[in-house]
Inverse folding.
């Protein structure tokens, strides 16, 4: 049953992979060595800490011989006190150094992962965002990157210290008394197996906690976003019961994980004292000479063995913890690497990049001016694993022509403009701009000559001035105001208390939908685009605001090639060419009057919409 569930759940299956993929971790660990200075400091400080941990019991053992032997040497007391003070001072410096450097590495690795992932996200095609939810991407940039940075930075510290300390202790024990050292060596695999056994089960337990926590987070998000629906349907009690059940499950899973986690340290401590008991039992026999005159151990040597045995098993537990965390971080590492290594679906050819540059390093001096002639030549397109949306689509548009696309939802209107903007590329056929295949020029060249206005306007946090200027960051105040006046946005902006310096809030929440759309229009025309795309840009605007911006749209389209995906047919009556799209094919074409005269699909759409609008007006009156 569990295997069947994992088979149908790739994320769950990935997180339940208990093997460490060293190829993935090799790529992650490369990020560490971008900060070689910090890594070197950590290695030196952890080796120094291991030496200090080994030196302290050795010094205490020597003190027993010097002060409690047959010939006490009390004149060396100040030498030992000085040695202890020096060791304490070195401990302070070493611990300060590794904490500081490990913290730097944690911050830098998290920064590197997030920066590399975010920069790569800018290069990815629109199809990537269609296939991956925003929440999934956000989790990679936040929780996954934080978890990896923590595991890597502090895991390095514990691994270096643990391995160095264990090896150092074993060497000292083998030099001091090899026979008794073999006892510890034989006991080591037992505690290591115990640690791995518990760590694996602790890992599984905390995975359940994490999955339940994700569901609770989802319920929080759903509750906030759907609060109006919940209240209008009076579902508060149902939601409360659902949330309470999930919280109870979270509590049970957490308590189960805590119980398993809390067992490990007592078991390690118990086993270490069991080993100390064995060492004490066997070692006392050597001290008393029970095994012959040649196998005699001093009391100070037995004391050293006991201290080293106590110290030896703590690093072993830490190493097993790091290995378990590497397993725990495996899924996070794979998800981040998969994001960073995802290849964009839409990329320029090497020869195009050499001539025109890249998104981050454009060679604008080689860019030809864009005039605005557009041609679709036998263009077909289908989304992955979907049936064909567009088939053998042909269209030739002269610069400065306004083209409107109308039709039912799913007919292919938005697909046409997305192909034009090269958010996607044709499955078959060619799209030409100014008589040349647009793949022969850079994506950036095309996008910088585009003005695109979406149905749902999106504003960035900041002022109105900043949001308009996003299409031209060096725009002057005069240019910003002129763009706003063209689309009649200046009128409402001037009435605001802070005018163009008004903060729009998160996503433009402080403004109405119509006001946000007017700002997005101003932003689109500020850079004087040669090709303008309006994707149902007036669908979310009220009738009064629509009248205001219709004049602006008419002015805006002058001298530009314009593609308008229209929901309200009243907004496209002045378009030079109207295409009626059905099932990815053009079934009617012409201007407004020509299509009405045909009394076909467009005529029916326009008549039905006109009648509905008149009925709505009468109802409102």
């Amino acid at each position: 049953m569990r295997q069947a569930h994992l088979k149908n759940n790739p994320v769950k299956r990935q997180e339940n992979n208990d093997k460490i993929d060293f190829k993935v971790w090799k790529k992650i660990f490369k990020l560490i060595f971008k900060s070689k200075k910090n890594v070197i400091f950590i290695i030196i400080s952890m080796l120094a800490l291991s030496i200090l941990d080994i030196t302290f019991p050795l010094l205490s053992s020597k003190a027993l011989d010097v002060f409690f032997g047959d010939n006490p040497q009390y004149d060396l007391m100040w030498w030992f006190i000085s040695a202890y003070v020096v060791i304490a001072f070195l401990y302070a410096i070493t611990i300060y150094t590794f904490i500081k450097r490990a913290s730097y590495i944690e911050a830098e690795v998290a920064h590197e992962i997030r920066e590399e992932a975010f920069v790569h996200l800018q290069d990815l095609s629109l199809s990537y965002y269609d296939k991956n939810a925003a929440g999934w991407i956000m989790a990679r940039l936040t929780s996954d990157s934080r978890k990896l940075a923590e595991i890597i930075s502090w895991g390095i510290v514990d691994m270096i210290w643990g391995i160095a300390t264990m090896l150092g202790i074993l060497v000292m024990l083998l030099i001091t008394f090899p026979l008794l050292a073999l006892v510890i060596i034989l006991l080591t695999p037992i505690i290591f197996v115990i640690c791995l056994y518990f760590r694996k089960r602790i890992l599984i337990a905390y995975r359940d906690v994490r999955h339940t926590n994700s569901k609770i987070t989802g319920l929080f998000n759903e509750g906030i976003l759907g609060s109006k629906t919940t209240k209008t349907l009076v579902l508060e009690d149902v939601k409360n019961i659902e949330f309470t059940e999930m919280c109870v499950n979270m509590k049970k899973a957490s308590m189960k994980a805590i119980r398993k986690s809390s067992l490990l340290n007592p078991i390690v401590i118990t086993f270490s004292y069991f080993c100390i008991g064995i060492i004490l039992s066997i070692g006392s026999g050597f001290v008393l000479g029970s095994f012959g005159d040649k196998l005699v151990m001093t009391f100070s040597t037995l004391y050293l063995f006991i201290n080293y045995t106590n110290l030896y098993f703590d690093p072993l537990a830490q190493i097993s913890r790091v290995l378990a965390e590497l397993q725990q971080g495996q899924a996070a590492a794979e998800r981040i690497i998969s994001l960073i290594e995802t290849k964009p679906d839409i990329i320029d050819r090497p020869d195009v990049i050499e001539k025109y540059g890249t998104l981050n390093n454009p060679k604008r001096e080689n860019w030809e001016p864009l005039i605005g002639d557009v041609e679709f030549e036998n263009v077909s397109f289908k989304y992955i694993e979907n049936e064909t949306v567009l088939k053998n689509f042909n269209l030739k548009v002269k610069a400065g022509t306004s083209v409107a696309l109308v039709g039912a939802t799913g007919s292919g209107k938005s697909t046409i403009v997305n192909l034009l903007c090269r958010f996607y590329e044709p499955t078959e056929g060619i799209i030409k701009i100014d008589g040349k295949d647009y793949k022969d020029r850079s994506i950036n060249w095309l996008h910088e000559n585009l003005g695109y206005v979406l149905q749902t306007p999106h504003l960035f946090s900041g002022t109105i001035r900043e949001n308009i200027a996003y299409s031209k960051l060096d725009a002057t105040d005069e240019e910003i105001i002129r763009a706003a006046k063209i689309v009649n946005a200046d009128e409402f902006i001037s009435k605001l208390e802070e005018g163009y310096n008004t903060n729009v809030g998160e996503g433009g929440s402080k403004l109405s939908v119509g006001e946000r759309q007017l700002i997005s229009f101003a932003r689109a025309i500020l850079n004087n685009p040669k090709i303008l795309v309006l994707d149902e840009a007036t669908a979310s605007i009220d009738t009064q605001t629509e009248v205001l911006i219709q004049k602006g749209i008419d002015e805006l389209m002058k001298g530009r090639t314009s593609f308008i995906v229209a929901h309200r047919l009243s907004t496209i009556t002045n378009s030079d060419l109207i295409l009626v799209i059905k099932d990815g094919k053009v079934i009617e074409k012409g201007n407004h009057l020509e299509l009405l005269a045909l009394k076909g699909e467009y005529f029916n759409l326009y008549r039905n919409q006109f009648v509905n609008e008149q009925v709505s007006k009468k109802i409102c009156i």
Remarks:
- The radius of gyration is 36 Å.
- Residues 1-18, 617-621 have pLDDT under 50 and may be disordered.
